[in-house]
Design brief:
11 helices, three-stranded antiparallel sheet, eight-stranded parallel β-barrel, alpha/beta, 13 strands, about 350 residues, TIM Barrel
Length: about 350
């Protein structure tokens, strides 16, 4: 997330070292500081949160809430930190992060490596009162025998310190976690969460590897339990035949350009199912204003970026932001909300 030649040099480092170096640079104030005005056509709201524009930073980069304000300064309208788990954990053994340059993709099997609830809570308390929309991605510890309780613990402890929360039940890198997307498990999770006192919007982040029946189960549960919205989608276990990179066979979740079509299809499927009752944040393969526009017209009210930033650098967020404004005006939309779901 740093600027210019330094950002390009990051791609020469091993992936995890580059990730750490980028975070350190942000913490030291070396990231970009975007001050250009935002076109009013982009102003939108999702689950009661007012956003200057719909482009956000996805979870996974700033796992421990070390630099959310620097990321906001880089031009994102909102930032999601985490995933955080109740107890610290190291995650899976390295190597566990792989660039697929030829495919503009990444495979990761990080495994919710993070410093745990206490560390993230302390950092969020330290930034209390600062402007900017910051959410927290919540996960369960790998060795937990009460995963629904993990989410409730996190939500209770962090309520009041963030603008929204995401129940990440779709990471492919914690064994059995995706089982929480099943009907009974999801009902039990949401009952446990709803018994916890919290005031902020709560989203569910789903996997792209869903069948039509799974979509119905998740949509029904989300509506029944009054979830604030959906984040569609996480990384995929699928390996398209088109992958060229030598790391294409690595285990873990695939993100980036190869996921774009599937994630957009899933946004459209969920929007068709829930309409305006359940706002959607679209994630997956967004590397241009056109790709973001596809997600919005499929049914997303906002979008999040991650993998494309590795290959295109920190200026991508603003390029997408401004490109979206041009596309909306080209097609005669007076505001972004008017374009949501128009190709659903």
């Amino acid at each position: 997330m740093i600027a210019g030649a330094a950002a390009r040099l990051m791609t020469l480092l091993p992936p995890e070292r580059a990730h750490r170096a980028a975070l350190n640079a942000l913490k030291q104030g070396l990231g970009p500081k975007v001050r250009t005005p935002v076109d009013p056509v982009l102003a939108t709201a999702i689950a009661g949160m007012e956003l200057a524009h719909p482009v956000g930073r996805a979870a996974g980069f700033d796992k421990n809430a070390e630099a959310p304000d620097a990321l906001l300064d880089a031009g994102f309208a909102f930032v999601e930190v985490g995933g955080v788990t109740p107890r610290p954990q190291d995650g899976n053994p390295a190597p566990r992060l792989f660039r697929l340059r030829a495919d503009k993709a990444v495979i990761n099997r990080m495994g919710f490596n993070n410093e745990g609830l206490d560390a993230v809570k302390a950092r969020l308390e330290a930034r209390a009162g600062k402007p900017g929309v910051v959410g927290v991605n919540l996960g369960a510890n790998k060795e937990s025998d009460a995963r629904a309780a993990d989410y409730a613990i996190l939500l209770k402890s962090l309520s009041g310190l963030a603008d929204f929360f995401t129940l990440n039940i779709s990471s492919p890198n914690t064994p059995g976690l995706r089982n929480l997307q099943g009907a009974q498990a999801l009902d039990e999770l949401m009952k446990r969460v709803n018994d916890t006192r919290w005031t902020e919007p709560v989203f569910i982040k789903v996997a792209p590897d869903l069948e039509p029946a799974d979509i119905d189960v998740i949509a029904d549960a989300a509506l029944r339990h009054r979830v604030s919205g959906l984040i569609v989608s996480n990384t995929t276990l699928a390996r398209p035949d088109t992958l060229k990179s030598r790391h294409r066979g690595e285990a873990g979740g695939l993100s980036g350009a190869p996921v774009r079509a599937r994630s957009t299809e899933l946004v459209r499927a969920f929007y068709t199912r829930v309409g305006a009752e359940l706002p959607i944040i679209g994630v997956g393969g967004i590397d241009s204003a056109q790709a973001a526009y596809e997600k919005i017209r499929a049914g997303a009210s906002a979008v999040q970026l991650y993998t494309a930033l590795i290959y295109q650098g920190p200026g991508l967020a603003v390029r997408i932001r401004d490109g979206l404004a041009a596309l909306l005006k080209r097609d005669g939309y007076a505001r972004l909300a008017d374009a949501v779901g128009t190709e659903g």
